[in-house]
Amino acid sequence: NGGTVDVNAMEAMLGVPVVPISASKNEGVDELVRHAVHIARYQERPQRQDFCGYFAEKVLEMLSFKKCFLSADGIGLTDSEGIMATDVNTAKLDHIILHRADKVYLLADSTKIGRRSFVQYATLDDIDTIITDKALDDSSIQEFRKHAIDLELV
């Protein structure tokens, strides 16, 4: 912003690395990128083999998909329950992806149907096709058909 900053004092006060950037001289940008990549690494979730957080959301918001294949931790048969995940980060990413896709496929074994989970990320009307096993009960089949969801029983 044209002013001067005591980087050490700012880092001590904020408790995070501070990257001075000079817009007029284009200085500090490489350092900022290195810090951004470092921050993004902390959003990696190895146990789930995915990424989450601000950077992942922004990238997904720029993409379009012909088809997306999602999973769920719970599938409620009412609109107030809908398609659910166990954590907010997964729900946010799934919500972004399904709204960027032409066709939405939900992959879930029949034990997930009727099960509640922590956070809803979609309604039944957001889903085009559910791919599940042949153990799916008749009442669930009828409910999905009411929402014009195609079923593939495998």
Commentary on this structure:
- Helix content is 32%, strand content 23%.
- It is of the alpha/beta class.
- The strands form 3 sheets. The protein has a 4-stranded parallel sheet, with helices on one face. Strands 4-5-7 form a 3-stranded antiparallel sheet, with helices on one face.
- A hairpin with a 7-residue loop joins strand 4 and strand 5.
- The longest helix has 13 residues.
- The chain is elongated, with a radius of gyration of 22 Å.
- About 4% of the residues have low confidence.
Summary, kept brief:
This protein is an alpha/beta fold and 154 residues long.
Outline type: elongated
Largest sheet: 4 strands, parallel
Number of strands: 9
Tell me the series of helices and strands, N- to C-terminal. Answer: HHEEHEEEHEEEHE
Identify low-pLDDT runs.
Answer: 37-42
Strand-residue fraction? 15-25%
Radius of gyration from the alpha-carbon trace, in angstroms:
22 Å
- End-to-end Cα distance: 60 Å
Structural class: alpha/beta
Indicate the multimeric state: single chain
The side-by-side strand order for the widest beta sheet comes to 3-6-8-9
Mean pLDDT metric? 81
How much helical structure, as a percent, in the residues? 25-40%
Number of helices: 5
